[in-house]
Amino acid sequence: MNAADALGALFKSQTLIAHNQRLYPKVLNAYPPNGEGNVYIVQHGIVDDEIETIADYIDWYIETHPGMAAGEVLVLANRRVIGNGIKDALNFRAQQGARTWSAESFYLEDALNTPSAAEAFSLLSQLVDPDDRPSLRYWIGEGRQDCRRLPYTRVRQYCEQNGPSPRDAFEALATGQLNLPYTTDVVARYQALRQQLALLQPLSMPQLVDALFPAGAPEVSTLRQAALLIAPTVQTPRDLLNELRSDITQPELPGTQGSSIRIMSLHKSKGLTARLVIIAGCVSGVLPSIDFSAPIEEQNRQWQEQRRLFYVGLTRSTETLVMSSAVRMQRKAAMQMGVLVPSGNPNGMATLPASPFLAELGPHAPSTVHGSVWRANLGF
Predict the structure, then answer these.
(1) Strands (DSSP E) along 228-297, which ranges?
(2) Where are the beta strands (DSSP E) in the chain?
(3) Distance between CA 39 and CA 94 in Å, rounded?
(4) Contact predicate 313/25, CB 8 Å
(5) Of 275 and 254, more confident
């Protein structure tokens, strides 16, 4: 079966989603106006090759489809290191080739997943509202595996018995007006907070963004990108915080007729469609990412949920679908992505097993082709 016949056949077979147990399985029907489509399963030597090849392919695809808006391209990658790598490669090509489009990533849903980002956000929250208890609790516990649970519990119990807020109690401890045994560690963290807030208080909005989300710090790059877009339109730290919270919880995505190539996780793609959809990083440990320490029932639930998300990603395309993976990447980076790799030199290369979901696509799926062969066959 050639690629031009594969999209309709792949969706019609629904072999992948049949692996999920459903009491009332839904039947997905083809939409005739879309016509036949193209499906490619592509494997690259290393992740860097995957990123560069996908960027070249998207650039070529838009150039060979006159009148096609960049918003008709949707890249789905469940790891920011891959998604943002594709974004940067695309924007480099756009700049070099004087293209009228750009690439934009939407990973704000996990923008606070790194300690540096969460700490910066808690600082901003405390700057705006010193009585914000969640951000205060995060700051006090940050950096310790036990989150300083026992000394914090002593402070909380004092508050429950005597009435002050946690912030007032910590302020009294920091100034020597209150003494509680075994709280030295948490008091030191609160004093560090006071020092940080004193430094942030007089800053202008651009200075505040640079202080909280410094340039060149990968762990806060997503928040910095969002804050830089917000900063010119707001006047106060409270406005900045509110806008950031809104962007993280309810980001606005450009439409298909916009000038931005959209890059995001599979989860965020619900309800979206595009002529060209690329699912990148189709390797085990990413698709799916299973917590093997969880009870077997929970593991089964994770398998079914992530298979369903992969199926959702497959069905976003109206014209061309690409499923992409790489064979190797740096071992340290693979471990950070959650890929299980044998122990060894952390600076060495790790072999990446292909996603088991690819094997579940059934007989209508095209054969896997190497990235270099894919380039040669299509001429990009």
Answers:
(1) 260-264, 274-280
(2) 38-46, 73-77, 102-106, 260-264, 274-280, 317-330, 349-351, 368-370
(3) 25
(4) no
(5) 275
> Measured over all CA atoms, what is the biggest interatomic distance in the chain, rounded to whole angstroms?
79
Q: What are phi and psi of 167, to 5 degrees?
A: -65, -45
Answer yes or no: are the C-beta atoms of 54 and 40 closer than 8 Å.
Answer: no
Look at the block and give the residue holding tokens 């088991």.
356
What is the β-pairing status of strands 317-330 and 349-351? antiparallel
DSSP code at position 283: B
Question: Token pair for residue 225?
Answer: 């990108």
Q: For 50, how many CA atoms within 13 A lie in the half-sphere containing its CB?
A: 30
Dihedral-angle region of residue 324 (phi above 0 means left; psi in -120 to 50 means alpha; beta otherwise) = beta
Structure tokens at 13: 């077979």
SS3 354: strand
* pLDDT of 170 above 50: yes
Q: What is d(CA 35, CA 6) in angstroms, rounded to the nearest whole number?
A: 11
Whether 78 contacts 254, CB under 8 Å: no
Q: Give dist(CA 309, CA 271) in Å, integer.
A: 12
- For the chain, what percentages of helix, strand and coil (3-state, to nearest 5) are there? 50, 15, 35
On whether the CB atoms of residues 40 and 57 are closer than 8 A, the answer is no
| Residue 39 identity | V
**Claim: this prediction has a pTM higher than 0.90:** no
Q: Do 314 and 279 touch, CB atoms closer than 8 A? A: yes
**CB 356: neighbour CB atoms within 10 A?**
15
Query: What band does 112 get if pLDDT is binned at 50, 70 and 90?
Result: confident
Give pLDDT, residue 36.
Answer: 65
Reported as a single tens digit per residue, the pLDDT across 44-84 is 999 999 999 999 999 999 999 999 999 999 999 999 889 99
